[in-house]
């Protein structure tokens, strides 16, 4: 299963539409989609390392723009779409608790959680829901998301052959680890925050 997805993403990197697909996933992940863009970013950088920094830039810009949509969902549509998304992820109670401490710790939440496997959409929606200042939300999101994507790209560029070897030989194990980390991000948000 992971092998065919990985091969498809590698073949996608050669297409002119690849940056658009990457930006769509980055945008969606920041507002409602559960899968982070890293699943496309890493194979695309491996396939076209000369475009690595461009891909990181695309992820950053699209993620911040998607984050603004997530912020809007939290600020204006929380009672409908926001509640539905948090219910979907089983996180409604934690969002209320998180919101109460957001005024004091919001900047730290955005910076730390934007860089971790905790799904960023939970931060973007909660930021809007808590009425965190939009200007600072955008600045902090750009910093943390940019740092994350440019770090991923730097690591893939530096260790590309080793990463390629691991993915080629153990893609199913890597895929399972990725799913565990993704689910773990939701669990951390739900039970520890």
From TrEMBL:
InterPro entries: DedA_domain. It comes from the Bacteria. The keyword DNA-binding does not apply. Keywords: Membrane, Transmembrane, Transmembrane helix. The chain crosses the membrane at residues 53-78, 134-159, 171-192. PANTHER family: ALKALINE PHOSPHATASE LIKE PROTEIN (PTHR42709), DEDA FAMILY PROTEIN (PTHR42709:SF11). This is YqaA family protein. It comes from Hohaiivirga grylli.
């Amino acid at each position: 299963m992971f092998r065919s997805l990985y091969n498809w993403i590698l073949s996608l990197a050669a297409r002119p539409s690849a940056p658009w697909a990457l930006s769509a996933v980055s945008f969606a992940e920041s507002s409602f989609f559960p899968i982070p863009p890293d699943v496309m970013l890493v194979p695309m950088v491996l396939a076209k390392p000369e475009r690595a920094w461009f891909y990181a830039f695309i992820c950053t810009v699209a993620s911040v723009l998607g984050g603004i949509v997530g912020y809007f969902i939290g600020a204006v549509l929380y009672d409908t779409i926001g509640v539905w998304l948090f219910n979907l992820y089983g996180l409604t109670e934690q969002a209320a608790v998180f919101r109460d401490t957001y005024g004091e710790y919001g900047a730290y939440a955005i910076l730390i959680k934007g860089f971790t496997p905790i799904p960023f959409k939970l931060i973007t929606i909660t930021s809007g829901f808590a009425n965190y200042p939009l200007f600072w939300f955008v600045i902090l999101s750009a910093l943390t998301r940019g740092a994350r994507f440019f770090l991923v790209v730097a690591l893939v560029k530096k260790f590309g052959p080793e990463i390629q070897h691991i993915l080629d030989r153990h893609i199913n194990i890597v895929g399972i680890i990725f799913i565990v980390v993704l689910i773990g991000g939701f669990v951390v948000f739900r039970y520890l925050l």
